[in-house]
Structures are given as C-alpha cells and as structure tokens.
Amino acid sequence: AFVSVRRGHSSLCLHREEGSYPIRTHALTTGQLHPLGVGAGSLAMLSALPDPEIEAVLDANATVLASDYPEFSQDTLRKHIAITRENGFALNPGLIYPDSWGLGVVLRRSDGAIAGALSLAAVESRMQPARRAELLGQLQRHARTIEDSLARLYAPRLGT
Prior knowledge:
Elements: E1 2-7, E2 10-16, E3 33-35, H1 40-47, H2 51-60, H3 62-68, H4 74-87, E4 90-93, E5 100-108, E6 114-123, H5 129-158
Antiparallel strand pairs: 1-2, 1-6, 2-3, 4-5, 5-6
Helix pairs in contact: 1-4
C-alpha cells in the first residue's frame, strides 16, 4: 500500500507499507517521483483535477512520458482518466510493470482540494475481479479514515 502526494506535475510516494504475501511488487518506493498519471494513485490524483489543469500537466510531462513511459501517451492517459472518473477509482492493469496491478483513490481535504492518493499494488493473480472489489472497498474505507483525520487536524486552522 502507498500514500502519495502531488508535487507540481509529479506524484511523490511518501510511504510504502508491505503486506504479508511473499511475492512483492516494487511499483513504488518511498521518495520516488514520477509523472502524474503514471501509476494508480498518481492517476487518481490526475483524474481529480479540472480538465484545463490535466491538459497543462500532460503538456508539461510530454517529454518525460515520451522518453521514459512510452506506453503512457497523452491519448492513453486521457482514456484512463475517463475510465477513472467513470469508476470512481484508478486501475493500473500492469501498464508499468507486467503482472503488477494497482488500485488508487484520491484523498481530499475538507475543502475538496486534493490531499494525495492512497493506492495498492499486487500481482495480477491477486487482483482478480472479486478480490479487486474487496481490496477497493478496504482502500476506500481507509481513504475516508485518512480524510476524516485530515479534516480534524486542519479544522482549528480553518476555524471550523
């Protein structure tokens, strides 16, 4: 599982928590930056932005996407943004590393702004539809808990 935040046109992994399953997926490491849209949590954050801001991010990342992530063209990302918005969560079906699937949900502050993303990654065999639905439910519950904690933390500063 991962907690990520936005840093400009990138996503920064702040925390990584290993599960007990013996096969590891090294989709993200703490401190790693990558372009917004690359990875499930990163895609969740990008998809939550207004369309003009999405286009600005895609334009700013065009060179690095083309050189380092050629499977993530702007059109491919736009397609995944639409799917993410429709589903309410991001799914990365092995786009970065074959057999490494990810789920991601955006974390919001109490004012609706993006606070970051919560995501998880697992090998494809552990992300079949029934298990994926179970994991998504857990991810969404944990995301709400984090959002509630953020709201309590910032309430005194916001005068609420």
